[in-house]
């Protein structure tokens, strides 16, 4: 594995296309691997074990709100030719994660004193080890992302995924329950990146890194990280509060059911969107000084996110239970009522994340924090539904609607940075296409209701996708052309669809090659 050329030595468009290709291949690999592991584990573990794991993940998210990753992300804000001081970042990240690991041990100690949380106390002790490993792992990831070396990053990620899957599946078969999930996802996942950074690339910080970090030299990163960390804390609270309250009000089973229902969408559309944002974001700050061009690129990014996220969520309205049967079997039928509201909530989160990326690209940190505050203020009170006796489905719908309201606020705040008429590209086109595709898929579902889900679901999905693309081609061919212009193989698909050239698509190539 050799390092990819620096952004200054290759066109931005080539880097984006290459990054999307590698991330796309990894996405397919990870989806297939995750599907295989999930198919096995959901038949081995009861919902309560998933609920324990979800509670640990919520606690870790809260601890990591001000974790090393938010401060290290500042390295991506440097322009071309400005090499970050990686030794400073290394020292700061290691000290910070050491503190987080100690806090995790203290939290685990507190859980031993409370009977309802005692089952997750030993899991938190082990998870604290993973927090320490995250310091070099996050540094390795940011270094590779800054170099747009997604080839190396994804190969290492694939190795980590294979090792994690093997350990998780092995422990699951041995009856380890939540231990299998926590050890795999929160401890072992960092190991390959740490080994590559220290043993393969032979990264060595300057002497004296064990002393207190250079806070003066890290001041810009600290300012950036505190703003981002405050937002991450609010997002973590949105996961940690349900993880803390639901076991007491609805039980660990309910927490596990909600997690599996959300997992259907999170393991498909949400994962694709995350890869897209991860690939493209390092280039956004480099276009920030050109307002008109930045508007086109930011609009194109939100369009890509919405055209993936909106149809995927609406398809689950139609076929969510069938998808659940294929993935999880009849054992998880109790999750059916919360599949669609969970998908709506995750859709809203994806739109908020895309808006935050557009705002962050022009250093609007305060606006990002305000949006995170609004989102938390809308979402957190919904937990009161369970405190007054509401059922899981009622809570899931309340949370989904609250998160959609937060997404509407985020889109309104981001609108001044976007191209004129952005809402037609970002919202109207995918909604219309999804309604047409959904109508066709519904007819297929109705006509094949007596047949097996193995036949009904693929035909309904194919009908939905075909009608969606046809509707987008009819309603907004320039937007479709602009999107395909930066996707690997997209030019060929555009020719097959007889799409016209589009100014935004041409500008992407022009701006990237400049």
Write up what this structure looks like.
The structure is a single chain. Helix 5 packs parallel to helix 7 and helix 17 runs antiparallel to helix 18. This protein is 75% helix and 0% strand. It is mainly alpha-helical. The two termini are 28 Å apart. The protein has a domain at 6-226.
Give the secondary structure arrangement, pairings included.
Layout lengths: L11 H30 L5 H17 L4 H5 L13 H27 L8 H26 L3 H24 L4 H9 L4 H10 L18 H31 L2 H15 L2 H12 L10 H38 L7 H25 L4 H15 L4 H4 L4 H23 L7 H26 L5 H23 L1 H8 L5 H7 L6 H11 L1
Helix pairs in contact: 1-6, 1-11, 2-5, 2-7, 2-9, 2-10, 4-5, 5-7, 5-8, 6-7, 6-8, 9-10, 9-14, 10-13, 11-12, 11-13, 12-13, 12-17, 12-18, 12-21, 13-14, 13-16, 14-16, 17-18, 18-19, 19-20, 19-21
